[in-house]
């Protein structure tokens, strides 16, 4: 199994509070991704990173920001959480932009 | 993005082969065909991919039609652990710092009966 961990695994928070999710990898892969998964929508890309301090938006980036200060860590921040951001969030990594993506175990976020 | 069409669900019996179809009539010449699966309460997992030729690995086989407008994922002997959602995805080859986008559709829910 690819060495990918996500923390926390579960979180309940209130509307308007900031939330940061962490993805940590031990594989030294260049690319890292954040997806969200919702019923009826499948997995949708939020942001991705192609190197330290290099990030770009995905298809559903509004309301989210990311940071990558080290190769192994990719942080997803919800500046002011809303109920529409209740979802399961998956991190993924890949060696290059076209290589196989390996997914983490997911974080279930509930915004009340 | 080129789209894929998969049946919503399929059923199989344990120890029997399973053929999961995928139609992708608008595939471009440089699109790779990827299959991922997602077991309950887990992240997606890579299964196999190919471009033109049939492919085999330890998990499955991928049969690609000659015109590339369809493909079939073959699980040779289904087990209970193969029960999952299977996603057929077309992925563009990308260069530079861009990435080959993975667009997950609804997939096929595979149920395996003992």
Write the layout of secondary structure elements.
The complex is a heterodimer of chains A (112) and B (114).
Chain A: E1 4-7, E2 10-13, E3 19-25, E4 31-38, E5 42-51, E6 54-57, E7 64-70, E8 73-78, E9 87-94, E10 102-103, E11 107-111
Parallel strand pairs in A: 2-11
Antiparallel strand pairs in A: 1-3, 3-8, 4-5, 4-9, 5-6, 7-8, 9-10, 9-11
Chain B: E1 9-13, E2 18-23, E3 31-38, E4 45-50, E5 55-56, E6 61-64, E7 70-75, E8 84-92, E9 108-113
Parallel strand pairs in B: 1-9
Antiparallel strand pairs in B: 2-7, 3-4, 3-8, 5-6, 6-7, 8-9
Q: Your description of this structure?
A:
The complex is a heterodimer of chains A (112) and B (114). Chain A has 112 residues and is mainly β. Chain A is 0% helix and 58% strand. In chain A, the strands form 2 sheets. In chain A, strands 2, 4, 5, 6, 9, 10 and 11 form a 7-stranded mixed β-sheet that branches. In chain A, strands 1-3-8-7 form a 4-stranded antiparallel β-sheet, with no helix packed on it. In chain A, strand 4 (31-38) and strand 5 form a beta hairpin. Chain B is an all-beta fold and 114 residues long. Chain B is built from no helices and 9 strands. A 5-stranded mixed β-sheet of chain B has the order 1-9-8-3-4, with no helix packed on it. Chain B has a 4-stranded antiparallel β-sheet with strand order 2-7-6-5, with no helix packed on it. Chain B starts with 8 loop residues before the first strand and ends with a strand. The model of chain B has no long low-confidence stretch (mean pLDDT 91). The chains are: A mainly beta (112), B mainly beta (114). Chain A binds chain B through residues 31, 42-45, 48, 50-51, 54, 56, 90, 92, 94, 97-98, 100-106, and chain B through 32, 41-46, 49, 87, 91, 93-94, 97-102, 104-107.
């Amino acid at each position: 199994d690819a060495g990918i961990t996500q923390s926390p695994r579960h979180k309940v928070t209130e509307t308007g509070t900031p939330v940061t999710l962490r993805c940590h990898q031990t594989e030294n892969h260049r690319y890292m991704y954040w997806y969200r998964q919702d019923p009826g929508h499948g997995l949708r890309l939020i942001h991705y990173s192609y190197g330290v301090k290099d990030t770009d938006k995905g298809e559903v980036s509004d309301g989210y920001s990311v940071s990558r200060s080290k190769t192994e860590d990719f942080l997803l921040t919800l500046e002011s959480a809303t109920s529409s951001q209740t979802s399961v969030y998956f991190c993924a990594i890949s060696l290059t932009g076209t290589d196989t993506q390996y997914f983490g175990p997911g974080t279930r976020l509930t915004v009340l | 993005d080129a789209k894929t069409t998969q049946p919503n669900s399929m059923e199989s019996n344990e120890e029997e082969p399973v053929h999961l179809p995928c139609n992708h009539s608008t595939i471009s010449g440089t699109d790779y065909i990827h299959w991922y699966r997602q077991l309950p309460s887990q992240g997606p997992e890579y299964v196999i991919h190919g471009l033109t030729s049939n492919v085999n690995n330890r998990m499955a086989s991928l049969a690609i039609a000659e015109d590339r407008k369809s493909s079939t994922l073959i699980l040779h002997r289904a087990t209970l652990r193969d029960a999952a959602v299977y996603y057929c995805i077309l992925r563009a080859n990308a260069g530079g710092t861009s990435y080959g986008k993975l667009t997950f559709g609804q997939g096929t829910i595979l149920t395996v009966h003992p």
